[in-house]
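Notes from hallway chat w/ T.B., transcribed later so I don't forget. T.B. wanted the structure written out for a chain they're using in a teaching module, and asked if we could keep both sequence and structure tokens in one place. Agreed to drop them here.
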Amino acid sequence: MIKTIIWKNNTAVLIDQNALPIAEKYIACKSYKEVISAIKNLTVRGAPAIGVAAAMGAALGALRLPSLPPEEFRQKYFAICDEIAKARPTARNLFWALERMKKCFDRTKHSSQRDLVKELVNEARRICSEDIEINRQMGKYGSPLLADGDSILTHCNAGALATAGYGTALGVIRAAKEQGKKLHVYVDETRPVLQGARLTAWELKKEKISFTLITDNMAGFLMRQGKVDKIIVGADRIAANGDTANKIGTYSLAVLACAHRIPFYVAAPQSTIDVSLKTGATIPIEERKNEEVTHFKGVRNAPAGTKVYNPAFDVTPAQFITAIITEKGILTKPYRTSIAFTHKGEKLS
């Protein structure tokens, strides 16, 4: 299994996703600031993986703090968590993981500083290991949605690289393959950073899953030709009504899927759901640097001075989503009801 992020010798070790698919190399982050940099520059990406990285960054921050009076230690630790939270704005898992690390701190604050730090490290490691198990549960629930012989379209990368391991959308595909189903995957290249071409294709090749790479603007034509049976994507944040933020271009696919009567599935853990947001209208959308559009690998492909609009995500209204696959089961419409039910800790029958 691909190891996206691991904790080793008090260091967060990340696969360098910017180097893929040309080179498979790892970066060792020994400080929380290095983790912040890795999140910002897409060394680590994908909402669940960002959450795990954030938790490990918080643990690194605690490890490197000097011996301090309890209240001062808490203030400095919480300030580190708040600094990590500014790394990227859209992925709910980033904030969820840091909230969990803060709760762990307050739950253990009466221990010695040494024991407290040890428990924070353990909590970060638990978040990592739990993520893999959660992904496997999503695969278990989602795989029956895929029939033997299906051709599935994906967008961006929602595989092991976007998580601690196994994957969300690709985890469902992986689980179906493990059950012996023969599937073919159409991989959107995913402009402008090409996470589909660089990362999803790399994962599928490594897993020996049949796939075909297409440019983003070919997807509608494939649907019209009847070559797409199902669409599965991941998510970076899901509102209480089911509106879903995911990589830019997802909304277009959902509309096309609706027009062609193709099931459109979202696979995401409960930690991606933000019940504090009533609809997707208030999901913060990150805008990234112009160079991602005007350049590729340092080579300019647009005239100097070109104006650029580069939102990293868009929001797909819940009406276009057939079902949401989570570790608690398959959420169906009305999503406000099914999300509220599972967010209370209940499992769907």
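Follow-up for T.B.: The chain has a mean pLDDT of 96. Might be a good example for the class.
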